[in-house]
Amino acid sequence: MNERRSGRSGVRRIASPVTPAPVLLSDGRRDLPATTDPTTAQLAGVIGGPAGKHALVGRQRFMTPLRVLLLLAVVFLAFGWFAKAGCIQQAPNGPGGELGLDWSGSRQYVAMCYSDTVPLFGAERLDQGAFPYKKSWEEVAADGTTQIRYMEYPVLSGLYQYGSMVVAKTWNSVSWLPQALQVAVYFNVVAIGLALAWLVTVWATAMSAGRRIWDAAIVAASPLVIVHGFTNFDALATAFAAGGVLAWGKKRPVLAGVLLGLGGAAKMYPLLLLGPLLVLCWRAGKLREWGQAACAALAAWIVVNLPIALLYPSGWYEFFRLNSVRGADPDSIYNVISSFTGWSGFDGTLYPGDEPIFLNAVTLALFAAVCGAVAYIAMNAPTRPRLAQLGFLVVAGFLLTNKVWSPQYSLWLVPLAVLALPHRRILLAWMTIDALVWFPRMYYYLGVGNKGVPEQWFTGTVVVRDLAVAGLCALVVRQIYRPREDLVRRFGVDDPNGGVLDRAPDVRSRSKTVRRQALDQA
């Protein structure tokens, strides 16, 4: 250690024996949206404009980017709760003036506050304290026949509803707590859990974004969160899916598989991400890691599903049965075609209980074609695509070809889109279009005779939404084949979410560029 005497003061200064580490608090690779994104730059003008050229960034101890993102998410989740709060209003409309839900005048559609959570509380017999999948009931079909029904959701979503019901009933049983209708308390309990799940989604997306952490602001402040954050239980699945992507990016394939498997037990879509992982691992020669993730996903899914399947097989199978017999939903491309052309569908007129065999086969074939196209792109691209890019293409392709696109399913795309195509204005435009579909949807359900809108007003907006998603897919494919245009790959970055795939050499590829490079190296 070197010592030096400093002039007259006599103070000794200790010099470091090695060269100090570089200060990275203002690393030039850091993404500063206020200086790189025109929309963010305009918004920054409200609070004084972007940071100066020589400003030191990254020294805030409390208001870190992640905490700002989570706070922003809380604000938009609060907007989402207020958007649904109109449907838990109470009124003395019961026998003897008892309080009940005030859905008079079709409030759920006029106020556009509809949430599946509220009617399912009674429809799934949760108000009776029934355990999902064990409890059955009879439903009268349109033709007068009766059918035995059970809880229609995957196991983890059904158990979440049951747990929320137990908490709501416990709350109401404590006299000194503020009281309300049990269904209103149940909605709020569900909403708290879903809000936490969406915060996990924001956190996992922000961590997956790496140096572009501010891209996750579009997840936190998405218009779709306001409209659909509490429409159904899909935030549970997005949390598991985003967590699975993050775990894979941290080179923890087993944990990634467990999270994707749990997500598949809540909604099936997180399991779709195993497909892109398989193709990417095949190209990079990392099938061992993919096998670990796939086996862990299967094990996690079985651990959740097997007890219910063994104890209540009929109730467990209800989700699969219902999805096989249901026809084209109003917001599917097949119903859109019928709406404008009068087409009766692949199966013609169906009666209650009839299975749309041809429709099921067509949707399966079209989705298989999408998966084949994505696999072709993954194997032929000059540079191996990023996981988020292929994941977005597969999930978007599933929604576009499926016979069901429930409005809240659009939440599935939000984290993947942000990681796959971090162009803020483009993503916000799509999310706004998608969120606005909710308005004609509600007034279409209201009915023309009740001052609603014709079906074509609703299906027309669905067409615009589908075209917007298809446009995003085209942009993702373009950037896969032109990686220089990919904002994520700047500064020599390969795939922040690739995990073992990040910077791994290609072992198998049909790309002529890759084969030529391999020959040159040989």
Uncertain spans:
1-6, 518-522
Based on secondary structure, the structural category is mainly alpha
Radius of gyration: 26 Å
Element order: H for helix, E for strand:
EEHHHEEHHEEHHHHHHHHHHHHHHHHH
Main beta-sheet strand count, sense and barrel state = 2 strands, antiparallel
Can you tell me about this structure?
- There is one protein chain.
- A hairpin with a 4-residue loop joins strand 1 and strand 2.
- The protein has one domain (about 75-520).
- Helix 3 runs antiparallel to helix 7 (about 180-210) and helix 15 packs across helix 21.
- About 55% of the residues lie in helices and about 5% in strands.
- The strands form 3 sheets. Strands 1-2 form a two-stranded antiparallel sheet. It has a two-stranded antiparallel ribbon with strand order 3-4.
- It is built from 22 helices and 6 strands.
- With about 525 residues, the protein is mostly helical.
Question: Tags for this entry?
Answer:
single chain, 522 residues, mainly alpha, two-stranded antiparallel ribbon, 22 helices, 6 strands, disordered N terminus
Topology:
Elements: E1 2-6, E2 11-15, H1 33-36, H2 38-44, H3 65-85, E3 90-91, E4 100-101, H4 107-110, H5 117-123, E5 137-140, E6 146-149, H6 155-173, H7 182-209, H8 217-220, H9 223-228, H10 234-249, H11 253-266, H12 274-284, H13 287-311, H14 313-325, H15 333-341, H16 357-380, H17 387-401, H18 413-420, H19 424-436, H20 438-446, H21 455-481, H22 512-521
Helix pairs in contact: 3-7, 5-7, 6-7, 6-11, 7-10, 7-18, 10-11, 11-13, 12-13, 12-16, 12-17, 13-14, 15-21, 16-17, 17-18, 17-21, 19-21, 20-21
